[in-house]
Amino acid sequence: QKEVEQDPGPLSVPEGAIVSLNCTYSNSAFQYFMWYRQYSRKGPELLMYTYSSGNKEDGRFTAQVDKSSKYISLFIRDSQPSDSATYLCAMGDNRKLIWGLGTSLGVNP
Amino acid sequence: NAGVTQTPKFQVLKTGQSMTLQCAQDMNHEYMSWYRQDPGMGLRLIHYSVGAGITDQGEVPNGYNVSRSTTEDFPLRLLSAAPSQTSVYFCASSSRVGYGYTFGSGTRLTVV
């Protein structure tokens, strides 16, 4: 079993839809949880960062961490064509960071 | 503020050649790392450094060397290129391993 599991998609939604992206993990010691967005032929960029559990909101983006279920989510409200990208989850502790494989998202105008 | 700068952006090597991928950051980050990204494999850690003079191996270190003589620079050396090293290479930095990373724009390497 991989330490982090992420459905690769692809996920295709119409413009304006609410998007839910998820990752599960197995290591209960993880404390740091992140979401990155990667456009084609670009480097990943940090979208959301959460320490421990709970929710964090930034504009149209909301990150949730449920440590009891070992499950993290990224919600995108009012999705736009410019949100079309691959979304990577990453999580870890003070020693290491483990990456999901990424979910490819397409938002259709 | 340039962030993380990687050079070159593209490179084609012949099998057996050596080369150095450059990485520089201007954020005074202590932690720097090199990843390779391959389809279906995700980001895999090659080498990392927690400060000047300190480096360690990641998940896939074979065929690569690194050094960290300054806080700003973290070059990655391919000793004898092989077709299996065809990949996109990313350098990333952070103030510490648990914090958010800033990535460079990547180097697309093809070994023929």
Number of helices of chain B: 0
Q: Which residue ranges of chain A are poorly predicted, with pLDDT under 50 across at least 5 consecutive positions?
A: none
Given the helix and strand composition of chain B, which structural class is it? Answer: mainly beta
Q: What's the main sheet of chain A like? A: 6 strands, mixed
Q: What's the main sheet of chain B like?
A: 7 strands, mixed
Write down the secondary-structure element order of chain B.
Answer: EEEEEEEEEEE
Rg of chain A, Å, rounded? 13 Å
Morphology of chain B: globular
Description:
The complex is a heterodimer of chains A (109) and B (112). Helix content of chain A is 0%, strand content 57%. Chain A is mainly beta. Chain A is globular, with a radius of gyration of 13 Å. The model of chain A has no long low-confidence stretch (mean pLDDT 94). Chain B has 112 residues and is an all-beta fold. In chain B, the strands form 2 sheets. In chain B, strands 2, 4, 5, 6, 9, 10 and 11 form a 7-stranded mixed beta sheet that branches. In chain B, strands 1-3-8-7 form a 4-stranded antiparallel beta sheet, with no helix packed on it. Classes of the chains: A mainly beta (109), B mainly beta (112). At the A-B interface, strand 4 and strand 5 of A face strand 10 of B.
In short:
The complex is a heterodimer of chains A (109) and B (112). Chain A has 109 residues and is mainly β.
Summarize the helices and strands and which ones pair or pack.
The complex is a heterodimer of chains A (109) and B (112).
Chain A: E1 4-6, E2 11-14, E3 19-25, E4 32-38, E5 45-51, E6 54-58, E7 61-66, E8 71-76, E9 85-92, E10 97-99, E11 103-108
Parallel strand pairs in A: 2-11
Antiparallel strand pairs in A: 1-3, 3-8, 4-5, 4-9, 6-7, 7-8, 9-10, 9-11
Chain B: E1 4-7, E2 10-13, E3 19-25, E4 31-38, E5 42-51, E6 54-57, E7 64-66, E8 76-78, E9 87-94, E10 102-103, E11 107-111
